[in-house]
Amino acid sequence: MSRRTIIPFGPQHPVLPEPIHLDLVMEDEKVVEAIPSIGFIHRGLEKMAEKKDFQEMAYIAERICGICSFIHSMGYCQAIEAVLRLEIPRRAEFLRVIWGEMSRIHSHLLWLGLTADAFGFESLFMHTWRLREKLLDLIEETSGGRVIFGVCKVGGVRRDVDAEALDRLLAALADLEADCREIAAVFARDASVQRRLSGIGVLPKEEALRLGAVGPTLRGSGVPSDSRRLGYAAYDALDWAPVTEEAGDCRARCLVRMREIAQSFDLIRQAVAKIPEGPVSAKVVGAPRGEYFARLEQPRGEVVYYVKGNGTKHLERFRVRTPTFANLPPLLKILQGCELPDVPIIVLTIDPCISCAER
Amino acid sequence: MMIETQPLEPLDRAALPARVAALAKEGWRLVQICCSCRDAYEVTYSFDREGRFLNLRIGFSKEDPALPSITESYFGAFAYENEMQDLFGLRLDGLKLNFHGNFYRLAKKNPFLDPPAAGSPGASPAASPSAPSAEGAPRAAPDPRPT
Amino acid sequence: MAHLTISKLLAKSAAKKPATRRYPAEKRTPPKGARGRVTMKQLETCVFCGVCGKKCPTRAIAVKRAEKTWEIDRLKCILCGECVEVCPKDSLTMEEEHAAAFVAKRIESHVQRPQPAPPDPP
Asked: Within an 8 Å CB–CB cutoff, is residue A88 touching chain B?
């Protein structure tokens, strides 16, 4: 046996926008074991729910993560609405789907850019983010905010998007979709990208399920698991199927995200075609009493919102299980046996969002 | 509106490892573990199989904050269990990857255990006083501002 | 496997003008409906009811009825727009342009001047 060394990775590392620390136990260039260490940015947002009005918490929930912001507030609102047995207008549900999918595209484009940057493909990174910028402009036009949408509230959404604006959105998204296809072709076919991603960090299907992987990490291993299939919001009215890839390596996870971008464009088109007229919010009466687990699909995977109310304006317990938290154990498994230079790219392919994970 | 049916199975603490092992064999995916503590501990284990959702719930008193670990069946549970250990001061027996209270870097030990007192460092200045105010009661006066 | 798949994209973008703006010279106009900053647009109509301050999730707005002042701490404001929605007199507006950056913490304060006394009711 060769000599073992421990290499600290993070919390500050060029590929990591957020702090996570890994102790990599090495044998020569091979990682034998990875021991994570998180908690640098634990904010205790769950505890804050006990001191905030449950309707104001929607703003805090949105700020759990700066990337998948909209789906966080949507998850929180859905959980509260389920406890209150509050029926929200159908138009609000469709608008939530449209914004949710825009948020997914923006998150995936961000991730693709970061990945390109991590393997040193600067021009691809720049072009991916150029497209993301266009999408952020569209988000600002429809919701009023670029990253923090601020449109979701308990009982529906806070602003309506009129038919004319939806048409403009569709036209702009059609252009963006064509641009995204060009980028996707590079990720899917370019030899240098494939050399860097293929066959690296393989997560077999059984392992992925057993370790509780979620989202593109799980679907990249060939499991068609997607919380949107539960049919929350307006997903029950749309025609789609989860995207899966069989290989389970870094490239598979990358392809899943790329195909999900295409799927999101399609879902937005369907939602705009089917959106009914009507009000966009329902009046909230009373305070939540009871408990519910709301499960939604975020760009990074399944998020679980648990709320427990005791009939007052303050929740008794609020808990968020974010996808990155669930993807940490699979990450440790993937890292075992990989080469040191591959560690950054493997860490990146689970799309870690640490501030999300620690809340 | 979609409301999922979420069966809740009350369970005894001692029966947990065996029940979880059975679920693992049947191919359930561990979704999350949620601990909450007001007058007594309440730990909920959620599982999913092809979209079906199942909760196991264990309740026990504050005097005896210990729980058997399920990392034997689901290694991924170590993250949730360490989180409970840090935030709620639970003792996890048989935890395979134990950070001994250092999973999160916290300013205060077991911050989620008690309802925070008014004016404690963890309390948000905006929401004090901490006592749940009655419906429609006026909010706290504007908080002190930096000059 | 293909090589240089990005070259077409690069050639195309080289022919186009840059995707970025020459910032101080060329400024971005925010789209209609963007949430840029909350302003007290019509101070004379404000009745200092304080609803905006109560509805503010971060308590960024302070209203003093006695002194007839309306204050906002822009560093606390999260631009949700609740205050603008609830204002009964429509004194508040959400402007699309963002507030300029500032170097020291300060509270923006608006004091209503004494208005000419309304004519006595008959």
From this structure: yes
CB contacts < 8 A, B to C, total 13
Q: Give one DSSP letter per residue of A296-332, joined into a string.
A: EEETTEEEEEEEEEESSSSEEEEEEE-HHHHHHHHHH
Dist CA B26 CA B20 (whole Å): 10
Residue A270, domain extent? 4-358
Q: Which of C7, C9, C13 to mutate against chain A (most A CBs within 10 Å)? A: C9
C73 and chain B in contact, CB less than 8 A = yes
B9 vs chain C: nearest CA distance in angstroms? 37
Domain count, chain A: 1
Interchain proximity A190–C78, CB inside 8 Å: no
A-chain residues near B77 (CB < 8 A): 212
User: What proportion of chain B, given as a percentage, has pLDDT over 90?
Assistant: 0
Q: Which of A123, A128, A258 should be substituted to probe chain C, the one whose Cβ sees the most C Cβ atoms within 10 Å?
A: A123
Chain B residues with CB under 8 Å of A314 CB are 132
The total number of structural domains that make up chain B:
1
Judging contacts by C-beta atoms under 8 Å, the chain B residues touching residue C53 are: 142
Chain B within 8 Å of C45 (Cβ-Cβ)? Answer: no
Q: Identify which of A124, A140, A191 has the shortest CB distance to residue C2.
A: A191
Q: What's the confidence (pLDDT) of residue C115?
A: 65
User: At C117, is the pLDDT very low, low, confident or very high (cuts 50, 70, 90)?
Assistant: low
CATH of domain C33-111: 3.30.70.3270
Residue B43, domain extent: 8-108
| pLDDT tens digits along C62-93 | 888 888 888 888 888 888 888 888 888 888 88
* Contact criterion met (CB below 8 Å) for B95 and B81: yes
Give the residue on A whose Cα is nearest the Cα of B127: A51
Q: How is chain C split into domains, by residue range?
A: 33-111
Nearest CA-CA partner of A193 in A112, A248, A109, A108: A112
Q: State the CATH number of the domain containing residue B86.
A: 3.30.460.80
* CATH (domain of A126): 1.10.645.10
Give pLDDT, residue A65: 83
pLDDT, mean of residues A47-70: 84
Q: Does residue B72 fall inside a structural domain? A: yes
What is the rounded distance in angstroms from the CA atom of residue A76 to the CA atom of residue A90?
A: 18
Q: Is the peptide bond before A323 cis (omega within 30 degrees of 0)?
A: no
In a domain, B89, yes or no: yes
Residue A232, H or E segment: none
Q: Does B5 touch chain A (CB under 8 A)?
A: no
> How many CB pairs below 8 A link A and C?
62
Query: Which H helix or E strand runs over A33?
Result: strand A30-37
- Residue B147's pLDDT band, with cuts at 50, 70 and 90, is very low
pLDDT digits (tens, 9 = 90+) for A151-190: 888 888 888 888 888 888 999 999 899 888 888 888 888 8
Alpha carbon of residue A71 to chain centroid: 8
Is the CB of residue C106 less than 8 Å away from at least one CB of chain B? no
Instruction: Please report the pLDDT score of residue B138 as a whole number.
Output: 38
> Residue type for B136, please?
G
Q: Is residue A217 over pLDDT 70? A: yes
Question: Is residue B143 in some structural domain?
Answer: no
Number of H helices, E strands in chain C: 3, 5
Q: Which residues in chain B have Cβ-Cβ distances shorter than 8 Å to C73? A: 145
Q: C78 and chain B: CB distance < 8 Å anywhere?
A: no
Domain contains B63: yes
Touching check for B98 and chain A: CB below 8 Å?
no
